[in-house]
Design brief:
441 residues; alpha+beta; 4 domains; four-stranded mixed beta sheet; 17 helices
Length: 441
């Protein structure tokens, strides 16, 4: 066997590894990273970016990799048996006392096993591992050879892709090009993996997951309920509005006409202060000139949609209405930011205070806390018709409770701590023994 034979075999295994690495790198690389490198002037990134941006191009790129893997594997097997197999056959015939046909068959089997082993290790497993560990670097290093392969095999790739799409349509599957797209659940998994790998801090992971969850949270879940909304009566006049606003810590107040079910707008505390300083707050002066428009949204509109509407209308407050057009509550940008960032300066929500771990092992939960937000604090997921802790307590008790009343909710002993008229303001709960460290919530 000449050195040329070994060189050809090594080249074929290398080509197989090149195509394997290119395929895995192409489907693993982050497009945002390639785009950043392209903007920084990296020429290979600039050449590779259009492939990632256009689904048909990426589809042809992957097809070129698969064709290259198949062709190099077939040529490797055929060439190896034609050269190594023929060279080893006399040895089997001489040392194994075999007939010529048997010796040729045995040598072919041995060569196939050895070449397949080397191909799997050097041409499959090693390139795949490198591509998954260093997807950006590998993708850029292989982009030039793959461009050459695409030009050389372009007609063949077109025929194969077309044939594959025809077969898919025949079995009732609509063919789709490769795209670097992920569902919200997949993104959450990727974020969790990044957190486990040390690339994200716990707080960063929480914010990202909460941001993804905005599409699933509704205005009704994040709003301040109407029973806790501080509003001004437009018919009471400017003087009454100034007096009431002076007693409240809020910078913006909704304004209603007749009843709180008919909110007509909102007034800014600065406008009231200006009117008072200019002497316009005398009895009989109307409040209507100071009333600004207010956005109205349905209680089942998603939080991300509410935020988009607020940005479009340049507002930070909206009235949330129910199916009958009545006022269900008020939602502000602070309510949505709280969902993203945790507790922030919020004028309306959490009248019962933030959740708190007490010295005796119990936790204090605000009555308006959503059930799934309470899970890290109590060690179990509560479920019921109500959305909030206070609502669930009244649902299980089947009456408006008094402070001090207790109820067992799915193994968690809950005591009503404070009430605000007919609403549960805060409760004390005994977490389950295996609860996962709620203090970090």
């Amino acid at each position: 066997m000449s050195a040329f034979t070994w060189i050809v075999l090594a080249v074929l295994i290398t080509l197989n590894g090149l195509y394997v690495a290119a395929e895995f790198a192409a489907v693993s690389v982050r497009r945002s990273r390639v785009r950043q490198m392209a903007e920084e002037g990296n020429r290979l990134a600039r050449r590779f970016l259009p492939t990632l941006d256009e689904a048909p191009r990426l589809d042809r790129y992957i097809a070129a990799c698969q064709v290259g893997i198949t062709v190099s594997s077939l040529v490797l097997g055929a060439y190896g048996q034609a050269t190594l197999g023929q060279a080893l056959a006399p040895l089997f015939e001489r040392w194994g006392n075999m007939q010529t046909v048997a010796a040729q068959s045995a040598s072919a089997v041995v060569v196939l096993i050895v070449l397949t082993t080397f191909q799997m290790i050097l041409g499959e497993l090693v390139p795949k591992s490198l591509a998954l560990q260093f997807p950006t670097r590998v993708a850029l290093l292989t982009v030039i050879p793959l461009r050459w392969s695409q030009k050389l095999l372009g007609w063949f790739i077109t025929v194969l892709n077309g044939s594959g799409w025809i077969v898919l349509r025949l079995i009732g599957v609509e063919p789709k090009a490769h795209r670097h797209l992920h569902s919200a659940e997949e993104i959450k998994y990727l974020v969790a993996e990044s957190r486990a790998g040390g690339h994200l801090q716990p707080e960063e992971q929480r914010r990202i997951v909460h941001a993804l969850g905005l599409t699933q949270r509704t205005a009704g879940e994040l709003m301040v309920p109407r029973t806790r909304v501080a509003a001004l009566d437009q018919d009471a006049g400017l003087a009454a509005a100034v007096a009431k606003a002076a007693e409240l810590p809020y910078t913006r107040l909704p304004v209603y006409e007749g009843s709180i079910d008919d909110i007509v707008g909102m007034v800014h505390a600065k406008d009231l202060a200006t009117a008072w300083l200019s002497g316009k707050s005398e009895a009989g002066e109307p409040l209507e000139p100071l009333v600004r428009p207010i956005l109205a949204v349905h209680e089942r509109v998603s939080a991300d949609r509410v935020l988009a509407l607020m940005r479009r209308e340049r507002g930070i407050m909206a009235v949330v209405v129910d199916d009958f057009g009545g006022t269900a509550g008020i939602i502000t940008t602070e309510d949505i930011l709280t969902e993203l960032l945790g507790e922030v300066a919020d004028e309306y929500k959490h009248a019962g205070g933030p959740p708190e771990r007490l010295a005796d092992g119990r936790v204090r939960l605000p009555g308006d806390m959503l059930l799934h937000d309470a899970t890290p604090w109590i060690g179990t997921l509560w479920d019921g018709e109500s959305d909030t802790v206070g609502g669930l307590v009244m649902e299980r008790l089947e009456h408006v409770p008094e402070p001090g009343e207790t109820v067992d909710i799915d193994g968690v002993m809950v005591q009503v701590e404070t009430m605000d008229r007919h609403a549960v303001l805060s409760v004390l709960a005994e977490p389950l023994a295996d609860e996962p460290g709620g203090g970090s919530a």
